[in-house]
């Protein structure tokens, strides 16, 4: 019995130590500031298309994946704009809906050659940077109601609710591709 | 090595990019100086323990996030391959948990809220309760034997914020890790048998990680890791003895006297009615001719006449200690007034040569002068264990690294100020503490990290203590 108590005490102390270690405080801060938390791979294919791949899956309130690209070529520090999402959230000619992105098991997005040609025509050739966002609903499923700003029933108005009741839960690091 | 006056972070980054080409670049930086970082994390450890002993706490959880904006860092843009000034944020996140387990004695009553009245300036109540035969004294009452465990962690690093347009779904921001990230931890055990002694024994773990180019980082592969051990003790409540070691080297040693406790031997009320008056002597091996130091020790030349550089042999590196003696007055004066006054004098053990000018430094006699005065707006309910203090402070801080980091001027000292709110209140029976600070060049911030000179520092923290 004493050994069990000692084991429990040691376990409690270990948990306490973990909860206040430097990694834990960083995890809290990076969650607040939405730090890039996983890596992706962007590949230019022989047919001119570009494939973005990741192996991170969504959490409990997963709503979809979104794909972003820098809004100018040759600038790592410029802002990003969405080019792929599970629903129609942008009217840009560079944006397209990919319904597979609504599933947590999705692990790739392809910018086909026509899509890439659009990009070159609009923004020019050069080096572009991509990121992937994991999108989550703002509320648990049982709270997606009118009181919390959802159009009810939320699942029958999923596209409208996606626009106003989701946020980026996790964001990937950048992956660059030369598009010429 | 060319020594030009440029912000040290810029140099730091130049080093990051040029080191592969064999270039040697100076990085005056508290971030890269594990000796200074160990002092910082230890100061926070002591700060929490001071609070715990004053308030006689079983449990203390403390979390703090500190952001410093406005670092213009010369960074390579991978889009062009060219350098450009990029706006970054210095992040400092701190967490601490302390658990005290009474092995002998301890607080017996179930009324934890009442116990928290001790340590908030209500010592007379404690005396009265003891005189009235009430045994429900504080946790650290005389001859209680307490075992304590502490875990303290500190993360420092630069991050860059970016924006993402989600089309009609709005715009959001994200951050990337940029450049070296530093993680310092303390794990310590404590034994307290007051009023005779208390002792803390601990390990300080300093680690450095390099993020990936894509802005992410793994915790699994530190590029640098050093261990230090420390002992911090108190004898007869008034004598503090602290030391830190690295391998076989005694890196710092400090001796302090708590004057109130000596005065308390003569007159207990006198000793406990005033803010705590301390006198502390410290020796720290701060300068080691390392890349992160702002000075060369003794001379800027090696024995063969060549200028000193970061890649010179170990045998050419000289060491210098910094001796300091300080007196401080800290705590509540009555129920309304809170004070934190400090004057610290300094003297290095060797001549030091500025890496900016190549000339010997005329070391200032004063390292730190600060005066902070606050007013407790919850004075009428102070004895319930609740307080809310608004404070203003001014300071002067001297450090040979200041000219490397300041935005203009070449002086080694900086005047600063702070505005802070600090309070504790009960949410039901749950004690919740909070602090909010805004400062500019305030000495306590510069002491923690001299890179923050000439920048605004915003800090928020939460505490749960009982």
Layout of helices and strands, plus pairs?
The complex is a heterodimer of chains A (180) and B (466).
Chain A lengths: L1 H18 L2 H11 L3 E3 L2 E4 L5 E4 L8 E9 L9 E6 L10 E2 L10 E4 L1 H11 L2 E12 L20 H7 L1 E7 L2 E5 L1
Parallel strand pairs in A: 1-9, 5-6
Antiparallel strand pairs in A: 2-3, 3-7, 4-5, 4-8, 8-9, 8-10
Chain B lengths: L7 H11 L15 H22 L3 E19 L4 E23 L7 H4 L7 H9 L13 E21 L5 E23 L3 E13 L14 E12 L3 E8 L2 E10 H8 L1 H5 L3 E12 L7 E3 L22 E14 L3 E12 L3 E3 L11 E11 L10 E12 L3 H4 L7 E15 L2 E11 L2 H6 L7 E10 L1
Antiparallel strand pairs in B: 1-2, 1-18, 2-3, 3-4, 4-5, 5-6, 6-7, 7-8, 8-9, 9-11, 10-13, 11-12, 12-14, 14-15, 15-16, 16-17, 17-18
Commentary on this structure:
The complex is a heterodimer of chains A (180) and B (466). Chain A has 180 residues and is an alpha+beta fold. Chain A folds into two domains: 1-34, no CATH class; 37-179, Immunoglobulin-like, CATH 2.60.40. In chain A, 26% of the residues lie in helices and 31% in strands. In chain A, a hairpin with a 5-residue loop joins strand 2 and strand 3. Chain B has one domain (6-132, 140-465). Chain B has helices spanning 8-18, 34-55, 112-115, 123-131, 259-266, 268-272, 402-405, 443-448; strands at 59-77, 82-104, 145-165, 171-193, 197-209, 224-235, 239-246, 249-258, 276-287, 295-297, 320-333, 337-348, 352-354, 366-376, 387-398, 413-427, 430-440, 456-465. Chain B has a 16-stranded antiparallel β-barrel with strand order 1-2-3-4-5-6-7-8-9-11-12-14-15-16-17-18. Chain B has a two-stranded antiparallel sheet with strand order 10-13. The N and C termini of chain B lie far apart (55 Å).
